[in-house]
Specification:
It is a single chain. The protein is mainly β. Helix content is 9%, strand content 26%. The protein contains one helix and 18 strands. The chain is globular.
């Protein structure tokens, strides 16, 4: 069955789109104009900012100790506005991904990501000069 499941206590913004088999666990906050592609799973208390794209098979985590019972201290990551999260990325608990950041496919994000940067790999590391490059590309496209 190809179902998307949104658990109780979630706040979902306007123009939200989800692919098949997306799971959004309890207490998540999803901004407006967010797209989450198929087979992705957002752990409890994950926050996703406006205009963000999450590719297929992305997983967010909310426990550093793999506890079976939910603890009020558990927090999913906070993903900023207009981010791009590549297919198969894994984002650790309580991580902050800054506005406009990109996470490469298959990356494992274990530390905060600065706004506007591009991170790739396991563990995810910034591409040298990525913030400057994205700024130059944006200026070229948008004048």
């Amino acid at each position: 069955m190809d179902e998307t499941k949104i658990h109780q206590g979630c706040i979902i913004g306007e123009d939200f789109k989800a692919g098949h088999n997306v799971i959004i666990d309890e207490g998540c906050v999803i901004g407006k104009d967010v797209k989450i592609d198929s087979n992705s799973c957002l752990a409890r208390r994950t926050i996703v900012g406006d205009g963000t794209f999450i590719g297929p098979g992305v997983i967010t985590l909310n426990s550093k100790t793999m506890e079976r019972e939910f603890d009020e201290s558990m927090r999913g990551p906070k993903i900023g506005r207009k981010c791009r999260i590549g297919a198969g990325a894994i984002i650790f608990p309580d991580i902050r991904i800054g506005d406009g950041a990109w996470v490469g496919p298959g990356s494992v994000v274990t530390h905060d990501v600065k706004p506007g940067s591009i991170v790739v790999g396991n563990p995810a590391e910034p591409l040298p000069g990525s913030e400057k490059k994205k700024t130059e590309d944006w200026k070229e496209l948008h004048g």
